[in-house]
Amino acid sequence: MRRLILTDIHGNAEALEGVLDAASGSFDEIVCLGDIVGYGAAPREILQWVREECALVVRGNHDKAVAGLDPMEEFNDMAREAVAWTRAQLSAEDLEWLINLPQGPIERGGADFAHGSPLDEDDYVVSIADAAYLYQFYDRPLCFIGHSHVQGGFCWTGGRVLRLQQPRAHQVESVVALDEAASYLINPGSVGQPRDNDPRAAYAIWDDLKRQVEFRRAGYDVEHAARRIRDAGLPELLADRLVLGR
Ligand code: ZN
User: Fold this and answer.
1) What CATH number is attached to the domain comprising 220?
2) Ligand 1 centroid, distance to 137 Cα (angstroms)
3) CA of 154 to the centre of ligand 1 (A)
4) Centroid of ligand 1 to alpha carbon of 217 (angstroms)
5) Global pTM?
6) pLDDT tens-digit readout, 3-30
7) Residue 71 has pLDDT above 90, yes or no
8) Which structural domain range is residue 168 located in?
């Protein structure tokens, strides 16, 4: 089976559209690793789409915050403002759906799916040291994670951690062949708010028969998404950072 893995869509409808156009015909089901809402101007649209189209969804910290399940101690003012705005856009039924989203990691098809670290949904795995620490307590061969908004991930092999390569600026795809003797933490990158200096929407395709993961990027109408954020009265910086990809 080929799975389209999405995370950190953050209410960005234009970015999701770019991904779905680019990935059309290349997957059998969709998995979403959370942060469906927060930051972007189309939370309702995105929530409804995820609800209807995704075979598996785990919650993210912004989903929890909008649902009222997170005290938001680690949120800055901009994120808090976006949470309050987003909450006001959603219906009682939408909020109920967010409240009931399951916590990762969840196993499906031989892999684990989580928002942050598989050890703690709110923890970031960004450095080689983070991954090496995690592998002292976690021994599953394949886990997909989001949360950092940085595409790529880590491979644990022969007692050390290697960083996986995301596509370069002139590429739309980079393929990782999964070695049976190694373990992988794979971050498909953020659909709706990339923070790895590449403004293109990020996603991944996992093919379990070919045993490979394709990291992919898709261009989209960033200016339009930014304009919608400004028109909604959300913090200006949320629009600016989309254009920069950080
Ligand atoms: Zn996020």
Assistant:
1) 3.60.21.10
2) 24
3) 19
4) 17
5) 0.97
6) 999 999 999 999 999 999 999 999 999 9
7) no
8) 2-244
